[in-house]
Design a protein that fits this description.
Structural class: mainly alpha
Distance between the termini: 87 Å
Number of helices: 8
């Protein structure tokens, strides 16, 4: 039984079309993922946060404080991928408020104590000279024992409210 050449070409066309669709879809997905990663990185930088006038004094205060080498989401997102993505999604609301000029009179910052503990327990190799709340003596030990505080589940910002940004209004006056 012989197959007509035109019939064989017709049978091959749907396969080629499907391959092209799969190839273009895959390429589009890779490009979109790359753009998302680059966009998330860019929007996590202090320079992006400072682009909104309502955050300029906080960024100025941060830039002269002890955490000036720590990016915004290191403190303002819960540790891990889920915390990072959740913070980015919540950040969309802040962008919306800025663009629509619906900025609240009082901006409340979110700091998860787990983010503090992630750096200040000796587990973050990016900050080897951070005070270590697990130590009771030595150069990296805090001035007081933090074990009872951790056991009581007291938030770090109870005592360290201004450590990340100092006093924003004072920093803004100095700049």
């Amino acid at each position: 039984m012989s197959i007509d050449r035109n019939e064989a070409e017709k049978e091959g066309k749907p396969k080629n079309k499907a391959k092209k669709i799969i190839l273009l879809s895959s390429l589009s997905a890779v490009v979109l993922i790359a753009l998302a990663v680059v966009g998330m990185h860019f929007t996590s930088q202090p320079s992006f946060c400072a682009s909104c006038h309502e955050m300029q004094s906080q960024v100025t205060a941060w830039s002269t404080g002890p955490h000036k080498d720590v990016t915004c989401l290191s403190c303002h997102a819960s540790p891990g991928t889920v915390g990072y993505v959740t913070a980015k999604i919540n950040g969309l609301n802040q962008v919306y408020e800025h663009v629509t000029n619906q900025i609240p009179d009082q901006i409340e910052a979110h700091v998860d104590p787990a983010a503090c503990i992630a750096c200040h327990s000796g587990n973050n190799s990016a900050f080897p000279k951070a005070k270590n709340i697990n130590l009771t003596s030595g150069e990296l030990a805090p001035k007081m024992n933090h074990a009872p505080i951790l056991q009581s589940n007291i938030s770090c910002v109870t005592c360290h409210k201004n450590v990340g940004h100092g006093q924003p209004n004072e920093a803004a006056k100095q700049s």
